[in-house]
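re: the backbone from monday

yeah here it is again, tokenized this time
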């Protein structure tokens, strides 16, 4: 144990290793139309059925010529036109040129295109203000972008909006994708009310369920929302049974901290194999993890920032592995200069919320968002990064270097 390990608390890396090691990726695959495949994970390498472009074509509006003719410096006769989709049918013979538009097929007999800005059309033909150009000047060769049979997407990639037009350019109308994990989730707590209801004394709106749903969908999983479940043994047990029968993963929030924990704990002792962990992470200390029959169970803490944070740090890598998204990578850590003080005591890894910017010297700088309470969700909303302060680190003074993880590469 290092100087600052806290007895009884599980370091975040150990928790993550344990969780990910126990996951087997889903393997069921099916064909999906390309225009519905966004966010799905590719089940097998995608190879291009064609060359792209399928024919050599012009990169400019201008004139297709043979370089030997250009060197002679004589006007060339326009023998025809090659437009996009309407190629020139014949061959361009010496002394001639072909009027050509961007994307149009290069006529036989031509080995360069001169842009129209360098051409002048006279009664004698077309003259050019250059006498020498490189072979294949302004010509996009066949297969310039992709060769037939090239692997363009690897198995385990998750389809992004950037991949869709690429596959469309290859004429790929359907892709083999993996089934998405189905995630059942519910909030627990007598105080929680769904949106649209009026709050009575002592009640609050259920926010975690909406956050979990948003993240689950963003991670490319199917969401099964089971609502708010009151702190009642039998109702909770029935909900757990329904959830584990219908989903690959069951996520709950609340009721895992000391006191209430026993309630969920009793049920799970009865129907599953669950460990109740105390993590060396702040916020987010209480976390339950295990299985209920074939379903994976994640019990998030109730505090909203803790719930989102454990989703991000522990559940996201688990879902990535379960989804077969083998190209998923842990968020990168970027060193940044603290421009404010960060309160911290040694013992747990802090995921504080920060606002970063890049200064005039091109360095990352980061300031705290202020209130870092585990119920203060505004700190997440106004932030654009996590400030990850190591387990054994104490208070951070202005000017010290800290590691940040940008939201746009993590929480999307
Ligand atoms: P618990 O883990 O159930 O003891 O809850 C810890 C704190 O988080 C309490 O203040 C709860 O009211 C709050 N909380 C629990 N679940 C939710 C939820 N779904 N949405 C918002 N706050 C919650
Ligand atoms: Mg509760």
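seq for it, each position gets an aa:
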């Amino acid at each position: 144990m290092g100087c600052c390990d806290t007895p009884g608390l599980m370091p975040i890396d150990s928790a993550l290793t344990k969780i990910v090691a126990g996951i087997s990726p889903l393997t069921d695959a099916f064909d999906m139309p390309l225009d519905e495949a966004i966010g799905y994970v590719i089940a097998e390498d995608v190879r291009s059925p064609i060359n792209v472009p399928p024919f050599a074509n012009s990169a400019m509006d201008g004139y297709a010529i043979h370089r030997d003719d250009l060197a002679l410096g004589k006007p060339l006769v326009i023998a025809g036109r090659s437009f996009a989709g309407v190629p020139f049918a014949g061959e361009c013979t010496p002394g001639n040129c072909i009027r050509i538009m961007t994307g149009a097929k290069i006529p036989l007999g031509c080995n360069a295109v001169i842009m129209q800005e360098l051409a002048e059309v006279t009664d004698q033909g077309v003259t050019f203000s250059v006498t020498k150009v490189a072979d294949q000047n302004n010509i996009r060769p066949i297969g310039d972008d992709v060769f037939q049979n090239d692997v363009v997407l690897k198995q385990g990639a998750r389809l992004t909006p950037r991949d869709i037009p690429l596959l469309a350019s290859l004429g790929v109308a359907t892709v083999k994708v993996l089934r998405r994990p189905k995630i059942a989730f519910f909030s627990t707590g007598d105080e929680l009310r769904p949106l649209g209801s009026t709050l009575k004394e002592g009640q609050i709106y259920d926010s975690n369920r909406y956050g979990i749903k948003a993240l689950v969908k963003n991670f490319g999983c199917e969401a099964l929302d089971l609502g708010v479940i009151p702190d009642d043994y039998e109702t909770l047990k029935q909900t757990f049974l329904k959830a584990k029968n219908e989903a690959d993963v069951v996520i709950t929030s609340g009721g895992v901290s000391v006191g209430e924990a026993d309630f969920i704990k009793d049920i799970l002792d009865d129907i599953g194999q669950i460990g109740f962990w105390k993590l060396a992470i702040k916020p987010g200390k209480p976390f339950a993890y295990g299985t209920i029959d074939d379903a994976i169970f994640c019990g998030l803490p109730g505090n909203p920032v803790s719930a989102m944070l454990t989703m991000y740090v522990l559940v996201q890598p688990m879902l990535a592995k379960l989804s077969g998204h083998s190209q998923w990578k842990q968020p990168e850590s970027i060193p940044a200069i603290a421009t404010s003080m960060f309160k911290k005591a040694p013992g747990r890894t802090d995921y504080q919320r920060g606002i970063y910017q890049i200064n005039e010297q091109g360095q990352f700088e980061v300031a705290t968002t202020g209130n870092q309470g585990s119920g203060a969700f505004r700190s997440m909303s106004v932030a654009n990064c996590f400030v990850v302060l190591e387990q054994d680190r104490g208070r951070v003074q202005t000017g010290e270097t800290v590691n940040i993880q940008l939201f746009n590469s993590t929480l999307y």
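The mean pLDDT is 93. Residues 10 and 191 are 30 Å apart (CA to CA).
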